From TrEMBL:
<dbReference type="InterPro" id="IPR011989">
    <property type="entry name" value="ARM-like"/>
</dbReference>
<feature type="compositionally biased region" description="Basic and acidic residues">
    <location>
        <begin position="1365"/>
        <end position="1377"/>
    </location>
</feature>
<dbReference type="GO" id="GO:0051301">
    <property type="term" value="P:cell division"/>
</dbReference>
<protein>
    <submittedName>
        <fullName>Sister chromatid cohesion protein pds5</fullName>
    </submittedName>
</protein>
<dbReference type="GO" id="GO:0007064">
    <property type="term" value="P:mitotic sister chromatid cohesion"/>
</dbReference>
<dbReference type="GO" id="GO:0005634">
    <property type="term" value="C:nucleus"/>
</dbReference>
<dbReference type="GO" id="GO:0006281">
    <property type="term" value="P:DNA repair"/>
</dbReference>
<feature type="compositionally biased region" description="Low complexity">
    <location>
        <begin position="1318"/>
        <end position="1327"/>
    </location>
</feature>
<feature type="compositionally biased region" description="Low complexity">
    <location>
        <begin position="589"/>
        <end position="599"/>
    </location>
</feature>
<feature type="compositionally biased region" description="Acidic residues">
    <location>
        <begin position="1393"/>
        <end position="1421"/>
    </location>
</feature>
<feature type="compositionally biased region" description="Basic and acidic residues">
    <location>
        <begin position="1263"/>
        <end position="1291"/>
    </location>
</feature>
<dbReference type="Pfam" id="PF20168">
    <property type="entry name" value="PDS5"/>
</dbReference>
<dbReference type="GO" id="GO:0000785">
    <property type="term" value="C:chromatin"/>
</dbReference>
<dbReference type="InterPro" id="IPR039776">
    <property type="entry name" value="Pds5"/>
</dbReference>
<feature type="region of interest" description="Disordered">
    <location>
        <begin position="589"/>
        <end position="616"/>
    </location>
</feature>
<dbReference type="InterPro" id="IPR016024">
    <property type="entry name" value="ARM-type_fold"/>
</dbReference>
<feature type="region of interest" description="Disordered">
    <location>
        <begin position="282"/>
        <end position="308"/>
    </location>
</feature>
Length: 1499
């Protein structure tokens, strides 16, 4: 028999003979006593142990060997006999090596004893013969006698038992009752013995390979390697239940694989080939029925039927083994990795997914136990985390979940790695999702600690970013979850280099985009992850870490931008992330929890309150200020709006609690129906503002049935403005615990009530925070002073109940800073005064302001000497609200301010500010000094130019840079406007409006120039033009003054939205939006907003689009058709736009205005009405005098074509609007005859129909496909001015690809008419020439000035009614019914009907809806329709003949366009072009002076 031997030595012919000569065998029936036998075996063993293999006479061992191999000893019942026999046998094998003195059968019996009896006994270290057992093991391992096992015929079963027993022993599955551990030398010898056997065996049985490989699965469970008594050992060695060390059996298998890599690679390859390839390619083992759970995504099973559930479990087990084998011994997988690569290309989705996940974990060094736990990311931690303290590698409490990769997979298996990366474009979303998760793990673990090259890391980060924008929500969700597993250091070192949150296309930017994903699970995960990252990074941001601020500083802005989506689910999500991630309620933890950390060096200076004691309120206040400082203008408005709703919600919740107490759990006293009705009303109000109204209603009613009085009191603690933050927080915590533990409470009750609590409780604005906000205002600590001032202003306006507790302290600080003629006040006192002025607006709140003489004198000092001038403005406001003798103080201040006023004297601007505010608040005190005021404002300021104009001057100056002359002119304009606004008598107001309107219109029309010498500096002109436009808007908030603004002047005002300077455009548009949201302006002003179609500042344009859509949704919800009726006004405005031309390319630009309106306002529901309005324009004629009365028909045809094309593109169905609609009288008049109407209706006014059709088709396609693109925050707003009206329009000639020449001046003159009823350029002083309001309106306002600078911005939240400044609120339905018989409305008619007037009566149920301005004062009737066609009871006004009612005209008949046409946002090279011959000649007599020619010196 061929035999492979153990270590051999040269044999000497003679040597020492064995001395032992006692018998060890016996005849049957005469056994040797056990004791005696043990003595003999012990003596033999000792003698054999001392003998040397080189000196012994092997023949002397023959007898002993024969007796030792006998069954008497091998099968002896005594353990000791067997143990000593085994010791003697291993010595004989050692001494006789390489030739064992035993036959094959004897060797089998001997190794049976070793394997089944001796070696298993090693599991009990307390065994009496443990020494002998260990000796046998050591001999077999060191002498390598174990290799003789391979020479035994049919030894597979013995080999299997050997491996099985040894792994069981070492794994601790059969330890001694004492729990004593196996010695390390035993573990070592076992491992060496098995390594020898594997290395020497020609072939290992497959079952043995299974056993070896299966040991790696011991890493899958935390309890691996423990016996029933193992818990005691675990408690002694580890602080958690997770393993700190690898299991012993795992280590032994690992040793085998690493010691015999080539052989084990062959065995492992065969093992996985049997498991993986058979299942992959073999027939599906099914019984004809597959469960739905067998497939991961049945929709994705493009290939043949996949493995069964049982097969899939086996595959998953095999792939878990692969993960662990890579961590233990990568060399053994050299033949298996190609099999995994083949799986990547399998048709079956499950196989591809398993291969993708497995390769990802292999690259990451993640084993069978799974990935490491995510790093701690606690936004409420205090002190905040510092970047240098973050661990550089993944930390795990268990070695099983610690990522470890022995070598770089990307380098050793490049082809497989490349194919793995290609799975990102797999056709199956399941695979892409798994790939995305794997990429996240690779990045987090740095490829198992090996590290990635910069190129590989960048490629993976880009891939992760792509998956954030994947078309499938599962992939996007996987990408977001992958990023949520990143630690702070990972975010900064791996994601931030790809670009910050504001960089378009970066991973962080894409993550922010997912916060507004169309799928709610995605945006929940994204918003939470993004906010958590900022919450953890807040410490570094507060400390001024530039890298962190650049990458993550804008996260709060991105989060609060989602508020503009106007989505109920998103709003609830915002509530959660604001108070759980950005400003956690538990931040900072209590002093006991934070005390350990406060002594650490990681505590940042800005978050530690200096060296003082721990102050939770100051720390939390700073976090709030830090969040607000991180917001841009748009998102800051959203933040303030979310806080502004708190008082309303608080009142509603208080009412809800009261109704719950009345409901009394269903046992009511009194009128139960009325009580239930009241409860339902409050519940419905709350449920309408949450995502699932039905569920919310049911759960709130169930809460009412609980009747938990303690929870009622807790909610009152939470919403009470008088409670400090600690009380509020503890109340919310206790309430949450009570609801969770209440047995009768529904499962989702707390989830429903939590957003309501967040919205109604005093969390962000709390009385505990105010003292520290004031402290930051005064000290500007950490650069938060400006934000603290802004926050204080907001609190004073929106939350007077919280503010009033600190009023006395504010007044005290003002008294300390009181200025004088020689002493300046602190600049911070301006914001304090501003906050007090806002607080004092409320008559009830003003009572809280001190009335003592000292404080009154302080206010007088500020009014006389305060700097900057706004301090005087605010001081006067507070003084007029707080003083009991305000008339006396007002008169005194006016006299001191106007007496001997000279430009340039000390505090001359302060005096102007005081005069401005007093003329508005106390107009009765002006009296004799009225002429002095006019002299100061006009002769000494407005008509003077003291600053020399230079060509190199900047076109714009910020508020801080504006020089004194420009400030003086600004205050002068405010004085004149306030004087007009404060006028009581309507007739007097109309008379005074003449010079003021003339002045403002000239500033608007002449781009801010008042001087006839045209020498005003550029910066002055732009500033004054913007201010004039804003003041005109403010005047128009009063209905009387709104009536005085003619259509021509309105158009000029509208074109300010297209000013070449971005600051002017932004300032005007934002002021317009502010007034529109507050319903202070009539609906015609919505027309202006649609001129922003060519706005080059994409951030501004994006916010405007969002605003328009928000308003459209509000009007739709309130069944208001204001924006639809505005379309006719837009047509008129575009027809009179200076850029209007019949050239197809120019009309294409006008089409973009209309398409801008369509994309933001038009829906399938209102499309018929908008189309009706567009068609209706061709049934009237233009009431505004112009060179070509057909322009409105061109725009009308253009609009109808675009609406049809948009309808076709959207696949909408357009029904005919069944009700007649009216048009504004000031813009349109009736046609003279039926023949003219027929001619206009049949004529197509669009030039070059084929060319226009092609251009419009392309335009509609672009609008449909266009996606909103991001622009970098540092874009220069002035780089490209908006598409603006051409001030000096010139005729256009034919086009050629060269250049576009300037147009010659075009003069537009109005035809003569008999009665100037509407559209006067400048308000006439004679009231009889204007149509009077039937209501006898008054120009006097019933409220005080709305505070603050003209640049102040507010969030545009919806208002359900339209209120003029004079205090009157529109009731549109009633107003229309009341004025039905006196309404002037243009209706389509034939020659016999003339101008028909009609008012459509709305449905009764929408009487409270928002509608157009009151008709009798507006001199027009805007149509108001409900979504369903109105009833046929619409009243028709008396019919007048067109001969009796001439068209209205503008008194200013000449419109002179300014001189240079600024470049559009997208400049186009155009050739000179000639005016189309069809345009009528412009020749009409003037009837009135133009504004530009009027003498400004008159009063």
């Amino acid at each position: 028999m061929a035999r492979r031997h153990a270590e051999s030595v040269a044999q000497e012919p003679q040597g020492t003979s064995l001395i032992f000569n006692e018998p060890l065998s016996w005849r049957a029936g005469k056994p040797i006593a056990t004791g005696e036998l043990l003595k003999r075996l012990d003596a033999l063993s000792n003698e054999l142990r001392e003998m040397d293999q080189e000196e012994i006479d092997k023949d002397s061992l023959t007898k002993v060997a024969k007796e030792l191999a006998g069954q008497n000893l091998l099968s002896h019942k005594d353990k000791g006999v067997r143990a000593f026999t085994a010791c003697c046998l291993v010595d004989v094998l050692k001494l006789c090596a390489p030739d064992a003195p035993f036959t094959g059968s004897q060797l089998k019996d001997i190794f049976t004893l070793f394997i089944n009896s001796i070696l298993p006994a090693l599991s009990d270290p307390s065994n009496a013969y443990n020494t002998q057992h260990k000796y046998v093991l050591m001999s077999l391992a060191e002498v390598k006698s174990i290799v003789l096992l391979t020479d035994i015929p049919s030894s597979d079963s013995l080999t299997l038992h050997l491996f099985s027993n040894l792994f069981d022993i070492i794994s601790g599955s059969s330890k001694a009752s004492t729990g004593e551990q196996i010695a390390k030398d035993v573990e070592y010898n076992m491992s060496q013995m098995l390594v020898t056997l594997v290395d020497e065996a020609a072939v290992l049985p497959p079952q043995v390979v299974d056993i070896i490989v299966a040991q790696f699965l011991r890493a899958t469970t935390p309890g691996a390697g423990k016996s029933k008594h193992g818990e005691a050992r675990a408690d002694e060695k580890q602080t958690t239940l997770l393993l700190k060390e690898l299991p012993e059996a795992y280590n032994m298998a690992k040793t085998i694989c690493k010691s015999c890599p080539e052989k084990m690679a062959r065995y492992v390859s065969q093992y996985f080939n049997d498991v993986i390839m058979d299942i992959s390619t073999g027939p599906s083992k099914t019984n004809g029925h597959r469960k739905a759970s067998d497939a991961i995504d049945s929709d994705e099973d493009e290939g043949p039927a996949g493995p069964t559930e049982a097969d899939l479990k086996e595959l998953q087990k095999a792939h878990r083994l692969l993960r662990e084998l890579w961590r233990a011994s990568p060399a053994v997988l050299q033949n298996v990795i190609p099999q995994l690569e083949a799986e990547l290309a399998a048709d079956n989705v499950q196989l591809r997914l398993l291969a993708t996940e497995t390769l990802g974990d292999i690259i990451s060094g993640i084993g069978a136990a799974g990935p490491p736990p995510p790093p701690p990311m606690d936004p409420a931690a205090y002190p905040p985390v510092r970047l240098e303290d973050c661990p550089t590698t993944s930390i795990s409490n268990s070695i099983l979940t610690t990522p470890v990769s022995p070598q770089s997979f990307a380098q050793t298996h490049q082809a497989v790695y490349t194919n793995f990366l290609k799975r990102k474009n797999d056709k199956s979303s399941v695979i892409r999702s798994g790939w995305t998760t794997a990429i996240g793990r690779i990045l987090v673990t740095s490829a198992g600690g090996i590290g990635l090259s910069r190129e590989d890391e960048n490629a993976l980060v880009r891939g992760l970013g792509e998956k954030l924008n994947d078309a499938d929500e599962k992939v996007r969700l996987a990408a977001v979850k992958a990023i949520s597993s990143f630690g702070f250091r990972d975010v900064m070192t791996k994601l931030a280099p790809n670009g910050g949150v504001t960089k378009s296309g970066s991973v962080l930017c894409s993550l922010a985009d997912r916060g507004r994903d169309r799928r709610h699970p995605v945006r929940v995960e994204a918003m939470t992850s993004l906010s958590r990252i900022w919450g953890v990074a807040a410490g570094e941001i507060a400390a001024g870490n530039e890298a962190v601020m650049s990458a993550l500083g804008a996260i709060p802005s991105k989060v609060f931008d989602a508020y503009y989506a106007n989505d109920l689910e998103l709003n609830v999500l915002l509530d959660h992330v604001m108070f759980e991630q950005l400003i956690p309620l538990s931040y900072p933890p209590s002093k006991s929890k934070a005390s350990k950390a406060t002594t650490g060096e990681s505590q940042g200076a800005s978050q530690t309150n200096g060296d003082g004691p721990f102050n939770a309120d100051k720390i939390r206040t700073e976090r709030i200020l830090l969040v607000v400082r991180s917001l841009d203008t748009k998102s800051k408005k959203a933040f303030f709006a979310m806080q502004a709703r708190q008082p309303t919600y608080s009142n509603v919740v208080a009412a809800f609690l009261k109704r719950c107490e009345e409901f009394n759990g269903g046992v009511m006293e009194g009128d139960s129906k009325e009580i239930k009705k009241k409860l339902d009303g409050v519940v419905n109000w709350l449920s309408d503002l949450l995502p699932d109204p039905l569920r919310t209603t049911n759960e709130l009613l169930k809460y009412a049935k609980l009747h938990d009085r303690r929870s009622y009191q807790l909610l009152r603690f939470a919403i009470g403005p008088e409670n400090d933050f600690k009380t509020v927080f503890n109340a919310i915590k206790e309430f949450s615990k009570r609801i969770e533990s209440a047995p009768a409470a529904p499962a989702g009750l707390l989830e429903t009530i939590t957003p309501i609590i967040y919205r109604s409780a005093s969390l962000a604005y709390n009385r505990s925070h105010l003292p520290f906000i004031m402290q930051y205002m005064r000290s500007d600590e950490n650069g938060l002073g400006a934000i603290a001032q802004e926050l204080m202003q907001e609190i004073s306006e929106r939350h007077p109940q919280i503010f009033k507790d600190n009023v006395k302290e504010l007044c005290k600080s003002l008294a300390e800073q009181s200025p004088s003629a020689t002493k300046l006040n602190d600049l911070g006192s301006v914001e304090t005064l501003r906050a007090l002025a806002s607080f004092a607006k409320n008559p009830n709140s003003s009572k809280e302001i001190p009335h003592d003489r000292k404080f009154v004198q302080t206010l007088i000092n500020f009014a006389q000497y305060g700097t900057p001038p706004k301090a005087a403005k605010y001081a006067v406001s507070v003084l007029m609200a707080a003083s009991d003798r305000k008339e006396m103080h007002a008169k005194d201040l006016l006299e001191k301010s106007t007496q001997d006023w000279q430009y340039g004297e000390d505090h001359f601007l302060t005096k102007l500010a005081t005069i401005s505010q007093l003329t508005f608040l106390e107009p009765s005190t002006i009296g004799k000094i009225n002429d002095d005021i006019l002299d100061i404002t006009t002769q000494k300021i407005l008509l003077q130019v003291r600053t020399t104009r230079n060509d190199g001057d900047s076109s714009w100056q910020t508020g801080a840079e504006v020089d004194e002359e420009c400030q003086a002119k600004s205050w002068a304009l405010r004085i004149l406007v306030n004087r007009l606004r404060a006028t009581d008598d309507p007739e007097t107001a109309k008379m005074l409006a003449v010079p003021v309107y003339k002045l403002l219109n000239q500033l608007i029309f002449k781009n801010g120039e008042l001087s006839k010498k045209n020498d005003t500096p550029k910066s002055h002109k732009t500033w004054l033009r913007l201010l004039a436009a804003q003041l005109m808007l403010k005047l128009c908030t009063n209905k009387l003054f709104d009536d005085l603004l003619s259509p021509i002047e309105f158009n000029r005002l509208a074109f300010v939205s297209q000013d070449p300077l971005a600051n002017v455009r932004r300032g005007f548009v934002e002021k317009l939006q502010k007034y529109l949201v507050k319903s202070k302006l009539s609906h015609r002003f919505y027309t202006i907003i649609f001129l922003t179609a060519f706005e080059p500042d994409q951030r501004l344009k994006s916010s405007i689009i969002t605003w328009i859509r928000s308003r459209a949704k509000l009007f739709h919800d309130t069944k208001n058709r204001a924006l639809e009726s505005v379309f006719t006004r837009l047509i008129s405005l575009l027809a009179h736009h200076p850029d209007f031309s019949l050239d197809p390319d120019e009309l294409r630009d006008h089409a973009q205005y209309i398409l801008y309106y369509i994309t933001t306002v038009v829906t399938e529901e209102n499309l018929p009405l908008v189309y009706k309005f567009a068609e209706r324009v061709k049934q009237v004629r233009d009431a505004i005098s112009g060179p070509d009365q057909d322009n409105i028909y061109v725009i009308s045809d253009l609009a109808t074509v675009l609406l049809k094309k948009w309808q076709e593109k959207k696949g909408w169905i357009m029904q005919t609007w069944p009700v007649k609609v009216g048009l504004p009288l000031g813009l349109y008049v009736g046609l003279p005859s039926h023949e003219v109407a027929q001619e206009i209706a049949e004529k197509q006014y669009l030039p070059a129909p084929e060319v226009m059709d092609s251009l419009l088709d392309k335009l509609v396609r672009e609008a449909e496909k266009k996606k909103r693109k991001r622009k970098s925050d540092d874009r220069d707003d002035d780089a490209h001015p908006a598409k603006k009206h051409n001030s000096d329009a010139k005729p256009k000639s034919s086009r050629n690809p060269a250049i576009k020449k300037e147009k010659p001046a075009k003069v537009v003159k109005t035809p003569k008419t008999k009665k100037p009823k509407q559209g006067t350029s400048t308000p006439t002083s004679s009231p009889g020439e204007r149509r009077k309001s039937g209501r006898g309106t008054s120009a006097k306002k019933t409220y005080e000035e709305r505070d603050s600078s003209e640049d102040e911005k507010e969030l545009w939240d919806g208002v359900a009614s339209w209120e003029y400044e004079d205090g009157r609120i529109e009731k549109p339905a009633k107003a229309i019914r009341d004025a039905a018989n006196s309404e002037d409305e243009v209706e389509s008619s034939g020659a016999d009907e003339g101008v028909e007037e009609e008012v459509a009566t709305p449905e009764p149920e929408v009487e409270e809806e928002v509608a157009t301005p009151e008709p009798e004062a507006e001199a027009e009737a805007e149509v108001v329709h409900t979504p369903t066609p109105p009833r046929s009871s619409a009243r028709r006004a008396s019919t007048r003949s067109s001969t009796n009612k001439p068209p209205s005209k503008a008194s200013a008949s000449k419109t002179v366009k300014s001189k240079a046409k600024p470049p559009r946002a997208q400049a186009k090279a155009k050739t000179p072009k000639s005016k189309p011959a069809a345009r009528p000649k412009r020749g009409a007599a003037r009837q009135a002076k133009d504004v530009s020619e009027m003498d400004l010196d008159e009063d």
